[in-house]
Design brief:
Shape: rod-shaped
Helix content: 25-40%
Low-confidence stretches: none
Number of helices: 1
Structural class: alpha+beta
Distance between the termini: 116 Å
Oligomer: single chain
Radius of gyration: 36 Å
């Protein structure tokens, strides 16, 4: 056995420490992963906007349909039209009415933001300016039309159906159908 002499030092293998930092390959992989994540985020934001627009179009269309159905009850309750006058053209009963009413036209008509000279939404004069007697196409809601069908179920009950055609966010034409029933009782249930 050999003893260490004072002049001899023990031999140690020195290892060089790797340099701190990242390689180009690691940077490329990190950049690719980050890019995929950002593209996925951008795609999800685009999808969320499309779904939001679709929901907004549907909600607006439902509001228009409900307002048309509620108008029928309001016309009856306020006495602006009699129960017999709430009908499609050709089926109006103007008996005991204070004014003549032609009725709600059948077939799809433009949806107007103005009730026209007769003050009733859904009639054929909705796009007529009462001051100039001219048609105002700017009053029509773009991409939306409606059909009101009123059916007499009995002498005291009518079925009112409003069908709205509208453009969804993808440009496709969709139909929304809303139905309500109207009786000849003008008394309010909320007294």
């Amino acid at each position: 056995m050999q003893a260490n002499s004072p002049n001899k030092r023990p031999t140690h293998t020195e290892q060089l420490a790797p340099e701190a930092g990242v390689t180009i390959l690691e940077m490329a992989v990190a950049t690719i992963i980050l890019s995929v994540g950002l593209f996925a985020l951008a795609a999800s934001i685009g999808y969320a906007i499309a779904v939001s627009n679709k929901g907004r179009n549907l909600t607006n269309t439902k509001l228009v349909a409900v307002s048309m159905l509620e108008q029928m009850e309001t016309l009856r309750n306020t006495g602006r039209l009699t129960f017999g006058q709430i009908a499609n053209v050709g089926a109006v009963d103007n008996t005991n009415a204070t004014r003549n009413f032609e009725g709600f036209p059948t077939g799809f008509q433009p949806v107007s933001i103005n009730p026209g000279p007769d003050g009733i939404f859904g009639t054929s004069d909705d796009l007529i300016d009462p001051t100039t007697n001219q048609t105002q196409s700017a009053w029509a809601m773009s991409g939306c039309s409606r059909e009101i069908v009123i059916t007499n179920l009995s002498s005291t009950l009518k079925r009112v159906q409003v069908t709205l055609q509208y453009q969804d966010s993808g440009g496709q034409t969709r139909n929304l159908v809303a139905v309500s029933y109207l009786n000849d009782d003008t008394r309010s249930n909320f007294r």
